[in-house]
Backbone:
């Protein structure tokens, strides 16, 4: 959904509810049982965006914006001889500030400004010969700041 309540301001929202469960057992080597949630499918997700493009100032058109994302609880991969692990929900917030100038755009941005630590991958039994039987996990990228220069063709 997108809404422009006033000139230059765009607000947006998207979200999803997903109820995705197995309807029968998987082969035993996979480990999924009837009724288990599908891996990595959160029940709830949501994103809220806001962007404001200021009136042009000569050849320059500045803008500012931000995004908030929510990723709900979700189950890990099916585990051979073990139960899935429920991974906690997390939120991230991004912001951007930029300027358009003719065929160029310069943007400063910050991602995951709250430095949220959400799990993006998890395996209770290891994922490689190096990890052996140890559990492995991957987290969201830490707070990040950057700059982008874009050319329009």
Residues:
């Amino acid at each position: 959904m997108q809404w422009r309540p006033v000139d230059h301001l765009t607000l947006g929202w998207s979200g999803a509810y997903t109820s995705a469960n197995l309807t029968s057992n998987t082969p035993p080597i996979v480990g999924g049982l009837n009724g288990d949630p599908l891996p990595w499918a959160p029940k709830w997700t949501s994103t809220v965006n806001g962007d404001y493009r200021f009136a042009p100032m000569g050849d320059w058109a500045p803008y500012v914006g931000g995004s908030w994302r929510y990723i709900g609880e979700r189950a890990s991969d099916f585990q051979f001889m073990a139960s899935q692990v429920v991974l906690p929900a997390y939120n991230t917030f991004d912001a951007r500030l930029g300027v358009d100038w003719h065929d160029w755009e310069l943007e400063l941005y910050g991602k995951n400004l709250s430095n949220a630590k959400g799990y993006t991958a998890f395996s209770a039994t290891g994922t490689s010969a190096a990890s052996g039987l140890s559990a492995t996990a991957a987290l969201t990228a830490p707070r990040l700041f950057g700059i982008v220069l874009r050319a329009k063709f």
Notes: The CA atoms of residues 53 and 63 lie 4 Å apart. The chain has a mean pLDDT of 91.
